[in-house]
Design brief:
- This protein is α+β, with helices and mostly antiparallel strands.
- It has 2 domains: 118 residues; 204 residues, no CATH class.
- The chain has a 5-stranded mixed sheet with strand order 3-4-5-13-12, with helices on one face.
- Strand 1 and strand 2 form a beta hairpin.
- Helix 1 runs antiparallel to helix 2 and helix 4 runs parallel beside helix 5.
- The longest helix has 28 residues.
């Protein structure tokens, strides 16, 4: 009896590990599309974990989706693309060796269940990229006036300008080329260029490459911009881009279509309100996900803007935007 019961305990532990990890993998796949739901449903099937000390593959797997942690939990065919919750149940039937002498069954039934979800984040100890672009419309509670697919400024040029009638082009990022945004950039002054971290080269490198934050940040906090062009950041930025397994796709749509990226070019960035008065007391109103351009698009010229493509919601550590349209999210076990 001790041997059979001990094996059942081991199988239960193996099964729980399986549903814990695969429910997290499944929730990470959700992106508000039917394709994301299908990838999530397939995540447990793609796992190579086994039970009974690695002898048998998990076969009786039930994956369900929900809009809320209390359910209702439905199968893939009935699931909404807005589902943020995934529940995985695995049932195993390990063979009994000695208990059949006492009971009339040769196999036990062991079940394990776990649920994971994309959970909203409003405070951050690590992970935020060290730049803060301007909101374009504070009355827009979803994107703050930014348009998914649009290109916005991370680092500002020293002397930003709009195209003029004399034929001189703009050195601003394409979707920031409005008088409203130019006025905000000029209100900052030529020294404050969008960077919001400490100025030492070692801290700059850590914040860009390793997701380090020297400041604990929450939605609603004031973000302080640090003066200077931050030329030393370029090498770190190129390293960050090259950490991605797809460092060449120019647009996020191509990056997603290719399916080769690991998400390192997708960064969570604090969006600020432009300040009160403009250019001062910049308040963090939200988090947006931005897609970094290939390395050749960033240069060290002091009057060059560094641009990135806004893609919507940011799911920390994931290679795509999430179920919700905006905000910051993390994949966590919830059951």
């Amino acid at each position: 009896m001790a041997i059979d019961l001990g094996r059942m305990f081991v199988v239960k532990t193996e099964s729980q590990n399986f549903v814990d990890s695969t429910s997290i993998d499944a929730a990470a796949e959700l992106d508000g599309t039917t394709a994301g739901l299908a990838r999530a449903a397939g995540a447990p099937l793609r796992s190579n974990q086994k039970f009974d000390l690695g002898q048998h593959a998990f076969q009786e797997i039930d994956t369900r989706f929900a809009l809320a942690p209390e359910g209702p939990w439905v199968e893939l065919a009935s699931a909404s693309t807005r589902s943020r919750f995934v529940r995985v149940t695995a049932t195993t039937r390990p063979r009994l060796y000695f208990l059949p002498l006492l009971v009339s069954q040769e196999r036990a039934t062991v079940a394990a269940t776990a649920a994971a979800a994309q959970v909203e984040k409003t405070s951050f100890r690590e992970g935020l990229f060290p730049f803060s672009p301007f909101a374009h419309d504070l009355s827009d509670p979803i994107h703050f006036g930014l348009v998914p697919g649009g290109t916005y400024t991370l680092r500002w040029p020293a002397n930003p300008r709009l195209p003029n009638s004399g034929g001189q082009g703009s050195n601003m990022c394409p979707d920031d080329r409005t008088q409203q945004i130019l006025d905000l950039a000029q209100a900052l002054g030529g020294e404050e260029r969008g960077f919001i971290e400490q100025t030492s080269a070692s801290v700059i490198r850590q914040t860009v490459i390793n997701d380090y934050q020297s400041v604990y940040r929450q939605i609603g906090d004031i973000v302080e911009m640090t003066g200077g062009a931050k030329q030393t950041i370029l090498d770190a930025l190129q390293t960050r881009i090259n950490q991605d397994t797809d460092s060449n796709s120019f647009y996020y749509a191509d990056y997603r279509e290719g399916g080769r990226g690991n998400g390192r070019r997708i960064v969570g960035v604090p969006i600020n309100d432009g300040g009160t008065p403009p250019g001062a007391n910049l308040r963090m109103v939200g988090i947006g996900a931005f897609f970094l351009r290939p390395t050749g698009q960033y240069g060290n010229g002091g009057n060059q803007a560094w641009c990135a493509e806004y893609i919507g919601s940011w799911v920390q550590g994931v290679n795509h935007s999430g179920v919700e349209q905006s905000g910051a999210w993390a994949v966590r076990l919830v059951q």
